[in-house]
Amino acid sequence: MDLLFDLGHSRLKWAGWARGRLHAPGAAVWRDEQAAEFCERVLADLEPPRRVAIAAVVRGPLAATLESVVRARWGCPVLRPLSSARCGEVRNGYRDPEQLGFDRWAGLIGAWARSPGRAAVVVDCGSAVTVDGLREDGQHLGGVIFPGLEMMAEAFYARTGLERAVIGSDADVAAGSTADAVAAGARQAVLGGIERAVQAWCQHLPGAALWLTGGAAPGLAPDLPATLQAAPHLVLEGLGQILQREGK
After folding, report:
1. How far apart (Å, rounded) are the C-alpha atoms in residues 80 and 73?
2. Is the predicted pLDDT of residue 248 greater than 60, yes or no?
């Protein structure tokens, strides 16, 4: 069995991949732990794979450490694919295909694999939020990016110079402190941004399948339209499709 990793800014997801399906998906959050210790801890409970593929949004120390620890532990091939101009019927809409974030690219391919021949809108809620459109013939039409919940709050404190003493609650717009007001404001901004972007895409792509993925998606989903279908492992599904198509 192959082993797939989806590495975001703070969250690592993984799953086995065999016969076109994911197996035993898992996830862990990386905070203050040493990168090597974190990777060793995650890999300790996983079976040795035939090969490993890594979808890395960040190209920092954690991605390099994960690859190094995998090679040292299992000695198997490790692939870190980049976005390409085309994968099967899915065609990249960026003028420079490699500039499209690989998580976005893999999410589009995962969406196509779920509903071949149907237009799709993919909402990925992580550190940043992306909303991409895919035409029914497989042509990616581009998308939008805006800060996610935490990034938006961090930007506020960084630009205002206010001290962030506590993490606020985003539960109510009737916030009684600056911390809560910033958290609630960020949530409303992200929810509104997603709704507006999806609404705009639906005018371009009527009848499109609407997919919601990313680490922050479960917390946002209750306040988003029910037409957005949860697809928590869409990036891993797309990565598996890429690995399968490359046939290496």
Report:
1. 17
2. no
d(CA 235, CA 106): 5
State yes or no: is 103 an active-site residue: yes
Q: Could you give the CA distance from residue 216 to residue 236 in angstroms, rounded to a whole number? A: 16
224-240 pLDDT tens trace:
999 999 999 999 999 99
pLDDT of amino acid 143:
98
In this structure, what are the phi and psi dihedrals at residue 172, rounded to the nearest 5 degrees?
Answer: -145, 140
Residue 222, token pair as written in the block:
């209750």
Res. 59 pLDDT band, cuts 50 70 90: low
pLDDT of 245 > 90? The answer is: no
**∠221-238-6 over CA atoms, to 5°?**
70
The one catalytic residue among 103, 124, 132, 170:
103
